[in-house]
Amino acid sequence: MQRYEIAGIPISIEYHYDDYLKNNIEAYVKKVNPSYVIKTILTDHISPLFNPFMQDTYRRFYQDDKHHTVQVVDVNNQVKYEIKRTHDYKEVYISMVERLSKKPAEMEYIFLSMVFLDIATLEGFVPLHASCVIKQNEAYLFSAPSGTGKSTHAAFYQTELNGLILNDDKPIIKNQHVYGTPFSGKTALNQNQVYPLKAIYFIEQGSINSISKLPIDDASKRLLKNIARPTTKDTWEALLPHINQLLNETPIYLAYLTLNPNSVYMTYYEPNKENPMKIKPGFIIKTIGLRYMVLPIDAQALHFNGIMTLNKSGKRLFEALETEQTLESLTQLLMDHYEVSFEDARKDVIKFVETLKEKDLLC
């Protein structure tokens, strides 16, 4: 049974199918003393239990002094799956009758992720169904029902802004930081990293791109619809303080987005538009031939070895940044001096500022 540390949680997991976790979970391997054990068991038969305290069409729920058990039955009332755990989740056993399952590898992955997210909730995390992208060492979360475009929008951050996918389906949040997990859906895109949370977006498809900050009541409804919802009183009590922290400390937006790469400039701009910035001391602009060139002087001459050329609008932006500016003020500057739409000005400013950040010219 292999040992892992996922988001700081020491855990031991034994699984059977490589379809989803192979070349995925290995990044989380660590020699730790596990606080939790999850084990999947393949068996030919699971004996049905009697006198459930709760049930629906295909699920039966049982409980005694030590364990909580769920059995899943088929149309013939044969038990296909059983999840048996201690009340504190310290030991969890997932039994599966392989011959009764059409997709045993997928079901094992689903059960493992469900159990882990319950454990994460008890450990103070908020599990959100979302794609998480990292830009400038900050985490942006895009949450939406499957098929709406959250993964597509996250992928646009990679192609347009050189962003990094932290987790494409099930990132977890704690104390305003987002953690990668090996449970990231069909794409298996995840990193064993942690980054500060910048913003949360709830996405819907639209004919035009538009964005609005959600009032706290609307934000809470969206969060509750898109988290991994607990089933016990203890997990709800562990989760609710952290949901309230998110609501009070995190910018949360509703975004109607087209499936167009330019939509990323809107979602990146909104939480960053008022951040002040300026050019570091030690850089000047000179005309060399037909080009405007950024040249380092004084101490910067020892550190800056690159070459940066500017067009006329870039020169105007660079000179403006000799005093403190924001994305918002720079966008307005372009609109004041050129016949350019707000959307095009915003995109040009973001690209220009990102280039300056990559060259470490901003403070």
Provide a concise account of the structure shown.
By secondary structure, the protein is of the alpha+beta class.
Defining key terms:
363 residues, alpha+beta, Phosphoenolpyruvate Carboxykinase, domain 3, 3 domains, 8-stranded mixed β-sheet, 29% helix, 30% strand, PQQD, PqqD family peptide modification chaperone
**Count of structural domains:** 3
Give average pLDDT, whole number.
94
**Might you state the CATH topology name of the largest domain?**
Phosphoenolpyruvate Carboxykinase, domain 3
Backbone CA Rg? 25 Å
Tally of DSSP helical segments: 8
pLDDT < 50 runs, ≥5 residues: none
Along the chain, the helix and strand elements come as: EEEEEEEEHEEEHEEEEEHHEHEEEHHH
Q: Count the beta strands.
A: 20
Give the CA-CA distance, first to last residue: 49 Å
The CATH architecture of the largest domain can be given as: Alpha-Beta Complex
Quick one: biggest sheet?
Answer: 9 strands, mixed
Protein name: PqqD family peptide modification chaperone
Pfam families: PqqD
Overview of this protein structure:
It comes from Paracholeplasma manati. This is PqqD family peptide modification chaperone. It holds the Pfam family PqqD. InterPro entries: PQQD, PqqD_sf. This protein has 363 residues and is α+β, with helices and mostly antiparallel strands. It has 3 domains: 2-123, no CATH class; 127-272, Phosphoenolpyruvate Carboxykinase, domain 3 (Alpha-Beta Complex), CATH 3.90.228; 283-358. The protein is built from 8 helices and 20 strands. Strands 9, 10, 11, 12, 13, 14, 15, 16 and 17 form a 9-stranded mixed sheet that branches. It has an 8-stranded mixed sheet with strand order 1-2-3-8-7-6-5-4, with helices on one face. Strand 7 and strand 8 form a beta hairpin. The radius of gyration is 25 Å and the shape is elongated. The chain starts with a strand and ends in a 5-residue tail after the last helix. The model has no long low-confidence stretch (mean pLDDT 94).
